[in-house]
Design goal:
mainly alpha
């Protein structure tokens, strides 16, 4: 199998998996939260183990407390993944809103340039998206992570497919 064909297969597989994720966004969201919880539990456990080797009683206690907190958060996500989707969605919504406000701030600083409108529109759309998520928080939180992963997989698949076609056309150069 040629290199470009492998990239095309990877791209088409990514598109198919993205469509599958969009078709069952709630299950994918729960899976994402469960994996996140597992990673937090593992990280907390490692933090606590490493805390034993810290020098000084204060460092050991802080390291053990931090590890315990991370592990408890991981267990919480794994025990109730639907509430975990709500927590992660709230954080994502905050980040989207903050990024929108920041882009609006920059837009007004760039009023005299040609970039003003693009920055203004981008910031406004981010704030509207955050508002939409908040207005539909209960429904959105169950699906948002799966939808975002599905969209990313489709975009990734499209990019890999274009890369494959590029490599096919320019095989002698690369």
């Amino acid at each position: 199998m040629s290199e470009w064909t492998r990239w095309l297969v990877a791209g088409l597989l990514s598109i198919a998996l993205g469509a599958l994720a969009l078709g069952n966004a709630v299950a994918v969201s729960i899976g994402i939260v469960w994996v996140t919880g597992s990673m937090l539990l593992l990280a907390g456990g490692v933090q606590m183990i490493l805390g034993f080797s810290d020098t000084g009683l204060g460092n050991k206690v802080l390291s053990m407390m931090l590890g315990s907190l991370i592990a408890v958060l991981g267990i919480s996500f794994m025990r109730n993944p639907l509430k975990g989707t709500m927590s992660i969605t709230a954080v994502i919504t905050f980040v989207i809103a903050f990024a929108g406000v920041l882009r609006l701030f920059w837009a007004f600083r760039m009023r005299q340039t040609g970039y003003y409108w693009m920055m203004l529109i981008s910031g406004s759309l981010s704030i509207l998206l955050a508002g939409f998520i908040l207005a539909n928080f209960l429904q959105a939180s169950e699906r948002l992570l799966g939808i975002l992963l599905g969209i990313e997989l489709i975009f990734n698949g499209g990019a890999l497919s274009v890369l494959a076609l590029f490599l096919r056309a320019h095989t002698d150069e690369y």
